[in-house]
């Protein structure tokens, strides 16, 4: 038998060689089981389960510690360190870390995982047979996921980014104890910022698709968002003595820089305030009406005769 790194074997303890440890064997090949890799007490003649890996000197070695992932498997592993030249190192449960090379990660540095992020990876070999991690994609994740029920629509769930792209961010939405969860996508228009590989966040399920995947959003539903944005704009106007140099005519960039919302969201919020008689616009300026300056707030849930603002 030719042993491979990343696989657990049941082998016989052949002998003890102090001060190194034990040698385990299948009858043909022997591999070192260092004292530091022994769990419990063993003696020559015992049968033990050991996981194969390459040590720091590129020698095949074994451990009785149980890894969080084995060869060909998918697991969600935490980033515990980042090497500036090689890549990210992941916790794999053995007291040594697993490399996720930069070539497996996004080209843009800001989209790469940070320490504490968790990445879905597959355990694989490099050309020399040593262990490394590869980022798992939908072909590997989908069989481990389940189809979302329609009752998920407009609920909030925890999600983990597995593929960050410009046009959209692909995530796995937490499904509790059922599989890995549900495959989802956050379209670029539904993001409030760029998301990095391995980042975890709360998302709203905006649509359950026929294939069981879901569309997600980082934004609240328009009605709730409009109320929150209106309150924020009203508070800003009061802080600015009832006038601000922002209106429907302002650029999307200036609105986003000041309020961190889109221009369409700004227009919806301003439209609500105008219909409620709290503000008015004069060219490129928005003003509070006198009663609003005295502290009258936005009415939440008030019936509105218009839609699409």
UniProtKB/TrEMBL annotation:
Please identify the protein, giving its name as recorded: RNA-binding protein
A Pfam family hit: S1_2
What positions does the domain S1 motif occupy?
Answer: 4-65, 70-136
- Cited InterPro entries: CvfB_fam, CvfB_S1_2nd, CvfB_S1_3rd, CvfB_S1_st, CvfB_WH, NA-bd_OB-fold, S1_domain, WH-like_DNA-bd_sf
Q: Which family does it belong to?
A: Belongs to the CvfB family.
Where are the annotated segments for Disordered?
284-309
Q: Cite the Gene3D superfamilies for this sequence.
A: Nucleic acid-binding proteins, Winged helix-like DNA-binding domain superfamily/Winged helix DNA-binding domain
Q: Which SMART domains match?
A: S1
